[in-house]
Amino acid sequence: MPYVSGRHTPKLLAVLAGVVYALAFRFVFNTGPFERFGGLLMLSFLIAVPFGLGILTAHYTPASRGNAWRYVFAPWIATTLFLLTAFVAHLEGVICLIIILPLFYFVSWLGARLYAWLEKHRNNKPDDYALVSAVALLPFVVAFAESRFTTPDSLRRVQNVVEIAAPPAVVWRHIVRVAPISPADLGPSLVDDIGFPRPVQATLTHEGIGGVRHATFERGVEFIETVDEWIPEQKLSFGIKPNTATIPPITFDEHVIVGGRFFDVLRGTYELQPLPNGHTRLVLFSQQRLSTNLNPYAGLWTDYVMSEIQRRILLVVKRRCEASEKGCCPTVSEN
Questions:
Q1: For this UniProt entry, which segments traverse the membrane (predicted)?
Q2: pLDDT (tens digit per residue) in 146-171
Q3: Are 139 and 52 in contact (CB under 8 A)?
Q4: How buried is residue 277: exposed, middle or buried, by Cβ count under 10 Å (0-12/13-18/19+)?
């Protein structure tokens, strides 16, 4: 056992260096001075920190361990242990971990590969003190540059479409108000597994412009939707405001709070298009605001989550409308 322990000690120390480095900056970027500029959603944390982690693990892993370990497995294991530690210590929730994991893997690999290139072209291993100092300063340098710029807003639109074997009049009845939805109605989805609440129902105070829909989700999540476009059997459109008074603080990770600093859902619209075969083409689209310095990457995730929520709602409406046309109850277990 001493032989095994000694043999693996350099690799373990390299991984440990990466974990400690990332955890240290996790706490640094969660403090007031950095929170003003986005905190853990700053590029200096999401890009510079895993980049530095990759450099450190490659530097402290002996060359004799092989390129695959130095430049892939060491940074990835360090990243995984860092994120698991953050999760176990309740520093991050599942949603945030799932979103940043691919990014951290890729950027830490880039950092390790850059180190390999530098080592090859310098013909010697960089000095420990100089390298650690440079890597430690990197996130601060990037943060200073990043703080000079305003965080951009990105308005995104997500659209889903379904064809329903029912006329617009039937479909209209099932979208202006949505009767209670059970988990079996929705079927399984990754968005449930990572912690997003399922939709429950939508009520309407009165028909016409000015009517207010209350769209409720599990765990106390509610959206207040004020109708501003009402064309019976053709179009229903509304502005959306999260009811922050009903949403418990533990429902979402702090960085994905709907209506918060980084993300908001602004509008929703249903459009009904009659088809020659007597069916209805139902379109549901929504508009969101995303405000981070990594909007293109974050948008991939918000688009996916919104699309999955909308897709499942449309399938519930489709089953109910078609069951209504057949004069029977919908099959709730259908996916």
A1: 12-29, 41-60, 72-91, 97-116, 128-145
A2: 888 888 999 999 999 999 999 999 99
A3: yes
A4: exposed
- 120 with 159, same domain: the answer is no
**Helix, strand, or coil here: 89?**
coil
Name the one residue in this structure whose structure tokens are 């430690």: 136
The bridge status of strand 263-274 relative to strand 212-217 is: unpaired
Domain membership of residue 78 (yes or no) is: yes
Rounded to two decimals, the pTM is 0.85
Quick one: pLDDT at residue 126? Answer: 65
Do 94 and 194 contact (CB within 8 A), yes or no? yes
Q: Which two tokens stand for residue 20?
A: 């400690």
Does residue 114 sit in the same domain as residue 228? no
Q: How is residue 202 written in tokens?
A: 């939508």
Question: Which residue has 């974050």 as its token pair?
Answer: 298
How many CB atoms sit inside 10 A of residue 49's CB? 31
What are the beta bridge partners of residue 290? 154, 263
| Distances, alpha carbon 131 to alpha carbons 56, 66, 67, 135, in Å | 8, 21, 20, 6
> 268: closest CA among 327, 199, 213?
213
215, 316: one domain: yes
